[in-house]
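Why do we care about 3D structure at all? Because function follows from shape, and shape follows, mostly, from sequence. That is the central idea of this module. The next example makes it concrete: a single protein chain, its amino acid sequence, and then its structure expressed as tokens.
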Amino acid sequence: MAKVFTILNKTGAMSASRFIKKLLGSKWKSSYEIHHVDYNENNNSHDNLVVCQDKKYHRLLHIRTNALITYGNANWRKCELCKEYDDPVNLHISKSGRHCYHNKCNTQRYHDLKFDATVKEVISCLTQRM
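And the structure:
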């Protein structure tokens, strides 16, 4: 059975993050984040907690877990435009890793935005003539 990190203080059980901060003491950095593997913040068993070096790494854990659950491949990423998962070789991923899309989806978005702007311009011209 997994060990559960529970320390009681005057008000009751301490949160996992507060406990780990106390456990690490001076080694704890403000950039660290606690990740619950099963996404259940009430499950503080030691095998359910991961100390992430920063928010970016924590976000990466969520991205990879969602890809693994959805498509069986943790390396796949989700296109933010068409919402489909695909192999990263078929996607453009920004340097920050926050934006990820197929080039064809981005091209389509560009044409849609350009078309919308043209339609708005035509409507504006028509309404001014009336």
